[in-house]
Write a structure and sequence with these properties.
By secondary structure, the protein is mainly alpha-helical. It is 55% helix and 0% strand.
Length: 155
């Protein structure tokens, strides 16, 4: 029960942090220097880094999904027309790229395969001079075809 409670609390925390990143990225995405969308680039790097960090540190797709849903939820919430008629995400190229980019980052981070292999159950190698456990292969002590010279002789 305690593990489920901590897991749910970690999902809530991830969703809140994802929401903060979603708001910050949505506000900053429209910053440009000339034709370079600096805000979009920095916001995408920040949101992607958060998702990768949560996935790598927790090894939990649920926490990554929670952070992604927090991001997407806040992007969606503040992308519409505000009560005063203000628009945070303009209906233009950069606004559309931002919305689809966040969705793509979330999808990629959640769907990324797990590369760690499960333990094979093989016994640890025996120490030098110790007999090999039964059923384990013998330790190679010589290379076939190579003549071993006695110690002290050589160049």
């Amino acid at each position: 029960m305690n593990t489920w409670l901590s897991r749910i609390l970690s999902w809530v925390a991830a969703a809140l942090v994802g929401g903060v990143y979603g708001v910050a990225g949505t506000i900053a995405h429209s910053l440009t220097w000339g034709a370079v969308p600096v805000g979009l680039i920095i916001a995408a790097i920040a949101c992607g880094a958060l998702l990768v960090a949560i996935r790598a540190l927790t090894h939990d797709r649920g926490a990554t999904l929670a952070a992604g849903l927090g991001m997407l939820g806040m992007v969606t919430l503040i992308s519409g027309v505000g009560p005063g008629g203000s628009v945070v995400v303009a209906d233009g190229v950069w606004g559309r790229i931002w919305i689809y980019l966040v969705a793509g980052l979330v999808l990629l981070a959640v769907a990324w395969p797990r590369f760690s292999r499960p333990a094979t159950g093989r016994p640890a190698p025996a120490a030098a001079g110790a007999p090999a456990p039964s059923g384990a292969p013998d330790v190679i002590t010589a290379v076939p075809g190579v003549r071993e010279e006695p110690a002290g002789h050589g160049s």
